[in-house]
Design goal:
Length: 340
């Protein structure tokens, strides 16, 4: 399938990605289900490109993409860079280390400088929640893609998780997805909540009470009829994992925690590690996901992390295709096709 065919298959009522009026991807909370489906359908075309002997195609020729990372990253940064280059964009990498940020330049001034140099799109990762939204409000020409901001959001990771699940199960509606681990500090969990619930999945959050947002513990998510009203919370992993179609383990983010949230890592692993014994409680052949990097032996056992049910490496592969789809839909030629 070409990108043009994917675009024509989309609902013509979509005003943003189809018409080109969406400039930013900040989270999935403002995405319609049709927009998410368009990204996943376009990803099919991009995945076909990745399977070719010559992978480079021309849709973003002449476009400039800047990756602006204030935090360390391997998977996300490399996949955005590869995605841009495979679509023939000029990709420029900027990190806080070695840039004018070290001299005290503000985020706003850095963003405006990059816009002035002609950046069509800025892919930003920042330790402070809301930094990409702040940039998007103050840039008139450059688009902004959130590659992870503090505890807030990581939309492209959620999209690649959704795509990976759909590739194996064929759909997302009514499946049971258990997300276990450091929910409180996880931007991946937050974006997945928006995406999976919008697609009709049943999501169960499992973590110690100290690693769950107070809003969920108090039942605040159940107020009204919004998509999060269907999310379940369970602090017992053995019970939560029963009948799960998908188990997503999250890294215990020690660098974001202050102190006192856990007694010991040994205690946490005993109660919340995804291991073979616990995975046996899920549906036969249940999928295992992890956004990485993994702390093997803490939130996931090495046997499960590298077992037959693990899709961790497949998530990384799909991450390139999903980010190619996002870049194309945001700044690609609306009449072009992925060919040649």
């Amino acid at each position: 399938m070409t990108v043009s065919q994917a675009r024509n298959a989309a609902d013509v009522a979509l005003p943003s990605l189809v018409s080109g009026t969406r400039r930013h991807v900040l989270d999935l909370d403002d995405f319609s289900l049709q927009e998410m489906e368009l990204v996943l359908t376009t990803t099919d075309a991009m995945k076909e490109v990745l399977g070719r002997e010559v992978k480079k195609v021309p849709p973003l020729r002449g476009k400039v993409i800047v990756t602006l990372f204030y935090e360390a990253s391997t998977r996300t940064r490399v996949s955005f860079e590869e995605a841009g280059k495979l679509l023939s964009a000029d990709v420029i990498n900027v990190s806080s280390s070695g840039s004018s940020v070290e001299k005290g330049e503000t985020l706003l001034n850095t963003a405006r400088t990059l816009q002035a140099t002609g950046a069509d799109l800025i892919v930003v990762r920042h330790p402070h929640s809301g930094a990409p939204n702040f940039m998007a409000r103050h840039l008139e020409r450059s688009g902004v893609v959130n590659a992870g901001d503090g505890w807030h959001a990581h939309p492209s990771q959620a999209l690649l998780d959704m795509y990976t699940i759909k590739q194996h199960l064929g759909h997302l509606k009514d499946i049971k997805v258990v997300i276990v681990g450091d929910i409180l500090h996880s931007r991946v969990a937050r974006s997945n909540l928006w995406g999976l619930t919008a697609a009709g999945a049943r999501v169960v959050l499992c973590a110690p009470p100290t690693l769950l947002p107070r809003w969920f513990l108090d039942g605040g998510h159940r107020q009204g009829n919004g998509p999060l009203a269907s999310v379940e919370v369970d602090s017992n992993l053995d019970r939560a994992i029963e009948g799960a179609d998908v188990v997503m383990a999250l890294r215990l983010q020690m660098e974001r925690q202050q102190a006192g949230l856990l007694p010991t890592l040994r205690e946490y692993s005993k109660m919340y590690q995804v291991n073979q014994q616990r995975l046996a409680r899920a549906r036969p052949g249940a999928l295992v996901l992890h956004p990485g990097p993994m702390n093997e032996g803490v939130e996931i056992s090495s046997q499960v992390a590298h077992g037959a049910q693990s899709l961790v490496e497949e998530q990384v592969y799909h991450g390139v295709a999903v980010r190619m789809a996002l870049l194309y839909l945001l700044i690609g030629s609306k009449q072009g096709e992925v060919k040649e």
